[in-house]
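Let us work through a complete example step by step.
Step 1: write down the sequence.
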Amino acid sequence: MGARCLGSQPHLGESAARFAEVFEALVEYASDEQLDNLLQTVYQPQLEE
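Step 2: predict the structure and record it as tokens.
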């Protein structure tokens, strides 16, 4: 479905599908503390602005 929505850029649909798989694995296997640390690392630069 994702590739059809993106029209001439099906590679973006594939990348999104891989990202979703990685995200699901992180949520399933990482502890709450690890997820919190990851989010803080990713969003810290934006919070400092």
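Step 3: interpret the result. The mean pLDDT is 80.
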